[in-house]
């Protein structure tokens, strides 16, 4: 892509304005000591998958001028709950009986892998809650690993089959506030949403609460992967359950 970028710059007459430097950010040298602006599309699925944020923070700490800006400069992770009986039955419960064979061991594996897909907003059962806010201009690398509580309140009587995570990003340092959301109520993006299926089918009534916590950390063997631990509980009129589940984004 760097080679193609050089060709595009030359073809359009910007060789005296734009310099393309090919290489890893951690390894290259710049022809200037400091920069005024760092722009990077570092966001992955679930915001943090592939761990590209560390590269942006490295560049910020090494090159950004004291009054410089990072764009986008704010990011936030959000959580909601959905009804999704049809997909769960077709893709996960399917492994309980595959043409008469018990392949439920694969079901356990399928449950551990978050699904990246587009969620219909009509499937949303609860409110949406902010989990984590990140200020890219100030945060440190370790801030991308965290444990946060959540409390999702049902907006109707329904079943909950999965929790759904999505993120928003903002460009607050521009002359005009800009940004976008990857949530199910916003225009679809290639990041879609991240769906974490629950082992339990949670029956919830309007006004009842599904509460718990989510722990997010880079995988120790491969820091580009993410390990997610989800603890959830409900003590409702029709359902009482408490469980811990582990997910791995690979």
Give an overview in words.
The strands form three sheets. Strands 3, 4, 5, 7, 8 and 9 form a six-stranded antiparallel sheet that branches. The longest helix is centred in the first third of the chain and has 11 residues, at 53-63. It contains four helices and twelve strands, in the order αβαββααβββββββββ. By secondary structure, the protein is mostly beta strands. The radius of gyration is 21 Å and the shape is elongated. It has one domain: Hnrnp arginine n-methyltransferase1, CATH 2.70.160.11. β7 (158-171) and β8 (178-181) form a beta hairpin.
Give me some keywords for this one.
six-stranded antiparallel beta sheet, 40% strand, Hnrnp arginine n-methyltransferase1, four-stranded antiparallel beta sheet, 250 residues, 15% helix, mainly beta
Short description:
By secondary structure, the chain is mainly β. The protein has helices at residues 2-11, 53-63, 85-91, 104-112, and strands at residues 35-39, 64-71, 74-82, 115-117, 129-135, 146-153, 158-171, 178-181, 193-204, 209-218, 226-235, 240-249. The protein is elongated, with a radius of gyration of 21 Å.
| Beta strand count | 12
CATH topology: Hnrnp arginine n-methyltransferase1
Beta-strand content = 35-45%
Elements, N to C (H/E): HEHEEHHEEEEEEEEE
Mean pLDDT: 96
User: How far from one another are the termini?
Assistant: 25 Å
- Which architecture per CATH? Distorted Sandwich
Could you name the CATH homologous superfamily?
Hnrnp arginine n-methyltransferase1
User: Tell me, what is the CATH class?
Assistant: Mainly Beta
